[in-house]
Design brief:
Length: 666
């Protein structure tokens, strides 16, 4: 009677190994291209169809495989690159495990054609599912060509878990981008569906490789890095400012010529680029590290994308210091201006504010939002709040809108001189009377009905004082705008409550509702008089092609323009031209980070929210008119009580709670 524990067959072992090494077409292509580079190839061509699922080809002009080695090349753990255990601690080749070709052949139909320089004719091998079917002579140039068809044909479960062909093609495009950047001395050609997407020069210059991937404009905006410290040599390029991206997908690190992912290196570069990238962005970089082979371990995972350093702290310190030195002359980046809700009035000269007694007829009139003599752009000071200047006693640009039922305003008496002890107008808080003039002015834009499945607010104020998400009541009594806190929150006193209004959340909600309304009316985009040209990688262009419909729905129309560039023809109506390029890159970052299947409606809503998020930033100082308008929209319940991201718009602190905090109540 046989025992329960038995040896697996070679066929099962081969398929298990294939699952570790060959996760998708891009992984198989990576292994074959690395073999080409180890064979000394100076030119490599990669061609795929249907994302590499049904067909891919890797052709090189390397040294080829000798006839007596061809059978052994398809065996597991057969390699020419290491001999002893000690060799694992000083690996100088990209491949060394000797299992990639066997793993690929176990789950696909593989045809190999190869010839060495010493041979007059080549050899053609047909391997189906791990079994060599035939070996014959063939006419071919020096080098090796692998043609792989029907990947995972005999493992339907793994085939089912592959993404759509266009998504798998995106993974291959990303792989080719890294390969081109890793070896500037090799000419790579990448063909997808019969179209050449990448073709690098192979002249040995890293700048040429960066140009072939990112384009001329991106290369010009990047800073060259060249330095050494603690036995480490670092060369490459770093992009900050507008070159920053919304994710780390465009950070490429190459250790001794091998592409690696390393959180240690990412953190070091980001520390060196602090205050030189926009808020929420990450620096772009292409960095080559050269270090002794025995100080780095690449034998961590079968995919050879992870690495361990012998001295992580020293490596991080060296990388940060070298990158910081390269950026020493780069000034901190300025954050973009906020998109205003109300038109920015022209600058005015300082005026003398004269206090007048307020009559009953004046209280019934709408208040005009007049810009203060204090300039809006000033340096932030470490104060608790910023008071809103009261309207100055100068004629409004437009006549006030009369309130229905209000008595006609009588001519006022000449202004009396202000007493010496009068409180300056700019120190007095604003008072919003009902009805609000700005609320009347914007009544033409009703709030959009809430969605079927509104997002559940998740944010809360971290404080021992009880708080709640609040909607300001209808402005039927005086509301006092105290000022702003941290240039992020508007403080409003109403009855026995202190209301903290998140200016960014309200602004996002207003912009989101405007875009949704325009979307429903099919008037979301506006044509640009002069199209904007933006440099993108081929992978990024593929993402835009995949989601062209959703982008067109929100008014963003992008067309190909040259090899590494696209032309922005139309932009969302609420955005200005300077924000178009930034919005496009943010959308690409979001699409790159998506995982799994996302419905069209969810993706469209996410893109809309992203567009709105670019229209305002926390910490920006708003003008008087914008603050009044935001408060009025919340007070008159013309916005949904949560931002597009689900965060609350208003938090209320009750006077009783505050008194209890100060122990004024027993």
């Amino acid at each position: 009677m046989a025992g329960k524990i038995q040896l697996l067959s070679d066929e099962v072992i081969g398929k298990i190994a294939a699952g570790e090494v060959v996760e998708r077409p891009a992984a198989a292509i990576k292994e074959l291209v690395e073999n080409s580079l180890d064979a000394g190839a100076s030119a490599v061509t990669v061609e795929i169809r249907d994302g590499g699922i049904s067909y891919f080809r890797v052709t090189d002009n390397g040294s080829g495989i000798r006839g007596e080695d061809i059978r052994m090349a398809f065996e597991r753990h057969a390699t020419s690159k290491i001999r002893r255990t000690d060799d694992l601690f000083s690996i100088q080749t990209l491949g060394f495990r000797g299992e990639a070709l066997a793993s690929i052949a176990a789950v696909a139909h593989v045809t190999c054609t190869t010839r060495t320089k010493a041979d007059q004719s080549g050899i053609k091998v047909q391997n189906n599912g791990g079994t060599i079917e035939s070996i014959e002579e063939a006419a071919c140039p020096e080098g090796t060509t692998f043609v792989v068809r029907d990947l995972f044909f005999n493992t339907p479960v793994r085939l089912k878990f592959l993404k759509k062909p266009v998504t798998e093609a995106g993974y291959v495009s990303d792989l080719m981008m890294r390969l081109i950047l890793s070896r500037p001395d090799v000419s790579f050609r990448y063909i997808s569906q019969g179209k050449t997407l990448y073709h690098s020069a192979g002249d040995g210059k890293l700048s040429s490789a960066v140009f072939s991937i990112y384009g001329r404009e991106m290369l010009r905006s990047m800073h060259e890095v060249d330095g050494h410290q603690a036995g480490l040599i670092l060369k490459g390029f770093v992009g900050v400012g507008e070159s920053g991206r919304g994710s780390r997908n465009h950070q490429s690190f190459f250790i001794n010529g091998r592409y690696m992912k390393s959180s240690i290196l990412s953190a070091a570069v980001e520390a060196a680029c602090r205050e030189r990238v926009l808020s929420g962005k990450y620096p772009t970089c292409v960095l080559h590290l050269t270090m002794p082979y025995d100080t780095v371990d690449v034998n961590v995972h079968p995919n050879k994308l992870e690495v361990r350093f012998q001295n992580e702290a020293a490596v991080a310190e060296a990388v940060e210091a070298i990158v910081a030195d390269a950026l020493a002359d780069k000034a901190p980046v300025e954050q973009p201006d906020v998109l205003r809700l109300t038109p920015e009035p022209p600058p005015t000269v300082p005026v003398t504010v004269v206090r007048q007694p307020v009559t009953a007829s004046e209280t019934a009139q709408p208040e005009a939002a007049v810009r203060s003599a204090v300039p809006p752009k000033v340096e932030k000071k470490p104060t608790v709040g910023t008071e809103i200047p009261q309207k100055a006693a100068i004629p409004a640009k437009n006549p006030p809108i009369p309130t229905p039922g209000a008595p006609a305003e009588k001519p006022s008496a000449p202004p009396k001189p202000a007493p010496d002890d009068a409180i300056p107008a700019w120190k007095q808080p604003l008072v919003m009377r009902s009805p609000s003039a700005l609320a009347q002015h914007y009544n033409a834009e009703p709030a959009v009905p809430p969605p079927a499945n509104p997002l559940k607010p998740t944010a809360s104020l971290v404080s021992p004082i009880p708080v709640q998400q609040t909607i300001l009541p209808q402005a039927q009594a005086n509301m006092r705008i105290i000022g702003t806190l941290f240039d992020s929150y508007i403080l409003v006193e109403y009855a026995d409550n202190l209301m903290l209004i998140d200016q960014q959340a309200v602004h996002e909600r207003v912009m989101f509702d405007r875009m949704m309304k325009a979307l429903d009316q099919h008037r979301c985009g506006q044509e640009m008089l002069v199209p904007m040209i933006v440099s993108l990688t081929r992978r990024e262009q593929q993402l835009l092609d995949e989601h062209a419909r959703e982008l067109a729905d929100i008014g963003l129309v992008v067309e190909p323009f040259g090899e590494n560039e696209v032309s922005i023809r139309s932009i969302p109506m609420i955005l200005g031209q300077p924000q178009a390029a930034g919005l496009l890159r943010d959308i690409i970052d979001q699409l790159e980070n998506e995982r799994g299947v996302v419905s069209l409606e969810k993706r469209r809503a996410a893109i809309l929210a992203l567009a709105c998020k670019r229209s305002v930033r926390s910490g920006e100082r708003l003008n008087d008119a914008d603050i009044r308008e935001l408060v009025s929209r919340v007070a008159d319940k013309r916005v949904i009580p949560a931002s597009p991201r689900g965060t609350p718009l208003v938090v209320a602190l009750n006077k009783t709670d505050i008194d209890r905090r100060f122990r004024r109540m027993q």
